[in-house]
Write a structure and sequence with these properties.
Mean pLDDT of chain A: 82
Number of domains of chain A: 1
Low-confidence stretches of chain B: 1-8, 132-145
CATH class of chain A: Alpha Beta
Mean pLDDT of chain B: 79
Shape of chain B: elongated
Number of strands of chain B: 0
Oligomer: heterodimer
Structural class of chain A: alpha/beta
Distance between the termini of chain A: 36 Å
Radius of gyration of chain A: 18 Å
Number of helices of chain A: 9
Radius of gyration of chain B: 28 Å
Helix content of chain B: over 70%
Helix content of chain A: 25-40%
CATH topology of chain A: Spore Coat Polysaccharide Biosynthesis Protein SpsA, Chain A
Order of helices and strands of chain A: HEHEHEHEHEHEHHEH
Order of helices and strands of chain B: HHHH
Largest interface: A-B, 32 and 24 residues
Low-confidence stretches of chain A: 246-275
CATH superfamily of chain A: Spore Coat Polysaccharide Biosynthesis Protein SpsA, Chain A
Number of helices of chain B: 4
Shape of chain A: globular
Number of strands of chain A: 7
Number of domains of chain B: 1
CATH architecture of chain A: Alpha-Beta Complex
Strand order of the largest sheet of chain A: 3-2-1-4-6-5-7
Largest sheet of chain B: none
């Protein structure tokens, strides 16, 4: 499965969790069982239940937000942790148990074999999704898929999947800037703008643990509008974040935190990211 | 009410009311600054708005001159137009400000999470006891002080 070099890498599983008591411990144990060489960090996004205690009892390191930031903020906290602690690989495994940890090996293998992908994305729609994806969800996914495929000029079948693994370059990028809410689609655009490569592998997922999706009907309209706006605006932005050219950056801090907004337009990037 | 029919100029009574109200507004802003409920930056903004109203209330003809210049028949409409424009810009400014504040509080929350984890880990090391399952991320961490 994983190559010899992959075994020496420091690998981190980031588990964003918001009020996931009763589920988060199972996710942590699943990761430790099916991918024992991954360290596990649970990002508690301001839970008011026993999420923190259960995650710690299951053996995870826990990062606690003082209040709820949303999935984007939680993932960025995880990426910052990965960057600060020298991890080479980071993977998102949702705290609600939707992502099947037995695919971690396949994601890791693809990260190293598939034309040196910088991010590998578990896609439900390359093969059988493994559960009944709601129609609205499918439709929204299709729209994003078409739009993204046109922009990125590469087939993206599951742009809303959060089951993703990235290498050091992706970690650096996302530690410095990660979209706020509903970040998955925009993250793909960021990768594209920074010329990082994306590869999809087929995965199955579980239906969510408690049947409680983070996106219900009233919100899905906002979701669509927000993400489409972000895509549209992104086309007119040379780069989503100021960061040194990925090919020649030495691997350290690419940019000081806080310059994110002010430097965005001044960055003399070699022609636009949206192309 | 008189304002709507005020093409010739504003009735004196209304004028007095307007002056009193703007002065009160002025005082309110100053009081808020004194109690440190409002930073000077925004106080200046609101005070200049109040000042503009005050000038308009005292100098009756200014509004007519202004509306003539803009080609607006009813002076009151010129006032509404300008007020709308000012309020729109102000609100936009506040949206920008809250976006920035949201960004900043996100960064702070993430820093708090990082420091909190570090503190708990160091404290656990100091106590020499391993209260929770230690073997996870701790081994890989070398770069923090």
């Amino acid at each position: 499965m994983s190559t010899a070099s992959a075994d020496q890498l420091h690998k981190l599983a980031i588990v964003p969790a918001y009020n996931e008591q009763g589920m988060v411990a199972r996710v942590v144990r699943d990761i430790r069982r099916s991918a024992p060489d991954f360290d596990v960090v649970v990002v508690d996004d301001g839970s008011i239940d026993r999420t923190v205690a259960e995650a710690e009892a299951a053996g995870a390191t826990v990062l606690r937000h003082p209040f709820n930031l949303g999935i984007g903020g939680a993932m960025q906290t995880g990426f910052k942790f990965a960057l600060a602690n020298g991890y080479d690989v980071a993977v998102q495994v949702d705290g609600d148990g939707q992502h099947k940890t037995e695919y971690l090996d396949e994601l890791l293998a693809a990260l190293h074999t598939e034309g040196h992908a910088d991010m590998v994305c578990g896609s439900r729609f390359l093969e059988d999704p493994g559960y009944k994806v709601p129609l609205g969800r499918r439709l929204g996914n299709l729209i994003f898929s078409v739009v993204l495929t046109l922009i990125v000029r590469r087939r993206i079948t599951d742009p809303t999947s959060g089951f993703r693994m990235t290498n050091r370059r992706g970690i650096e990028l996302f530690a410095h800037d990660y979209p706020h809410d509903y970040p998955e689609v925009e993250a793909i655009l960021m990768l594209h703008a920074h010329r990082l490569r994306l590869h999809e592998v087929p995965v199955r997922m579980n239906a969510r643990g408690f049947g409680r999706s983070s996106i219900d009907y009233p919100r899905s309209a906002y979701y669509m509008a927000k993400v489409l706006l972000a895509i549209f605006v992104g086309l007119f932005r040379r780069r989503p974040v100021p960061i040194d050219d990925p090919p020649d950056h030495p691997g350290g801090q690419a940019v000081a935190p806080g310059t994110g907004l002010s430097g965005a337009s001044a960055d003399p990037a070699p022609e636009g990211g949206g192309s | 009410m008189t304002l709507l029919a005020a093409e010739g100029g504003i009735d004196t009574r209304v004028q007095i009311v307007a002056i009193v109200v703007t002065l009160l507004l002025f005082g309110l802003v100053l009081e808020l600054v004194r109690r440190r409920r409002l930073v000077e930056r925004y106080a200046l903004l609101w005070m200049s708005a109040a000042l503009a109203l005050l000038v308009l209330a005292i100098w009756r003809d200014l509004l007519s001159i202004g509306s003539d210049f803009l080609g607006i028949a009813v002076p009151a409409n010129a006032l509404f137009l300008v007020a709308f424009g000012v309020i729109f810009v102000l609100l936009l400014h506040f949206s920008v400000a809250t976006s920035r504040l949201g960004d900043e509080s996100k960064i702070l929350a993430q820093e708090v999470a990082r420091l909190d984890e570090q503190l708990r880990r160091l404290r656990a090391q100091l106590n020499g006891s391993q209260p929770e399952g230690e073997p996870t991320a701790s081994s890989a961490r070398t770069s923090d002080q």
